[in-house]
Fold this protein.
Amino acid sequence: MITPAEYVREIPAHHRLEAGRCKKCRKIYYPARQVCPECQAREFEPLSLPREGKIVTFTVIRVAPSQFSDQAPYAMGIVEVQPGVRLLTQVVDCDLDKIEIGMPVSLEFRKIQEDGEKGVLAYGVKAVPR
Amino acid sequence: MIGIVGYGAHVPRRRIKVEEISKVWGTDADSYKSGLVLEEKSVPSSDEDTISISVEAARNALKRAGIDPQKIGAIYVGSESHPYAVKPSGTVVADAIGATPEVHCADFEFACKAGSEAMFVTMALVKSGWMEYALAIGADTSQGKPGDALEYTASAGGAAFIMGGKNVLAEIEHTYSFMTDTPDFWRREYQFYPEHAGRFTGEPAYFKHVLGAANGIMERAGMKPQDFTFAVFHQPNGKFPLRAGKMLGFSRSQMETGLLCPIIGNTYSGSSPLGLTAILDIAKPGDRILMVSYGSGSGSDGFIWKVTERIREAQDRAPKTREMIAKGKIQVDYGTYAKYRGKIKTG
């Protein structure tokens, strides 16, 4: 379930792939953070991540949480969009047996969750084969 | 000069063939394929809807326009399948492409004509000088009742156009609209599937309005079919637009580039706008294009575009429509299609 407040908070990260770059040590975090774990600085600048990357690793979910059970089996992957910047996302529009580590993917805008038949629809990105 | 400064398309990868639908309903696939001039249609996955298709198409339009999204003053999404009954699709698109908060948003509806409505209004806003750029989108994930003739064609896809007054890649030369109150296709509130008036959707509806708009705009412009390199008409199936074009005096070669229905079905609000993107993908400076939409209820919007030199630098900045349609297709069976389209009720 996603609440309207949570939906709004996640718009920069989910809708625009906005990350935060620490102004002191230049490390990039996705999603953005309040405090840099590396240097404890609190000032960040936003930046939009590339919409292309490679699969670092993945797994196939066969017993899914109830809100995703109609999609099972489905793949979840960690995608590296630039050196050291990775995000966790569903991998879709491909044969699950053909997903490979190192596979080039694009990040497409998709519906990522819906709160039952009456709640809000949440959007974000999913990885698709390039 | 007012016109299109950027355009983009998006079509889901999944397809279902006419044979697969015919197999379930015991119909003759060959007669449907030849009667509708259609091989297969696009199918949205359960995570694709009018909003997600609109965002992807808008991002491709932005790549071609090469503008700051903050300069977009209005975003209008035309669709008959907005995911929410109450809550705009346009605000999601606006936030996703980085156009908020100083932007005007509205969702348009007029059956399959909602996308060209958005194009008409955005051009007028730019022409009036109220805003530098405006974004028009026509997108749908249309539904046909199981077993109904519409099920063979109702598909998904969308196109986006950024209108502006600088660096235009296709100038708008003329517009003309032709409307009457004609109930040939409708969906009442709370109904999941649309109803239609069978054969009445042909002569008194589609042909009357498409021919009315096409003849009207050519007469006002003082042009004839031979003055156009390309023509694109609304495509409820593959047959109607070819017949309408022939009646108007257009050759098949003028219509083939924008005719996408045979390979993706009827994308409703995305139909003639998507056809226009396929034409712009290969158009050359100086080419003139006639576009005529059609929306049940009923009406047609006509547009005459003239392609400029800027088309050459814009075409390769984003995926081309026919290449996108051909790339990475996933064929689905009827069961998978029924699941994705919410045709199977579990509770």
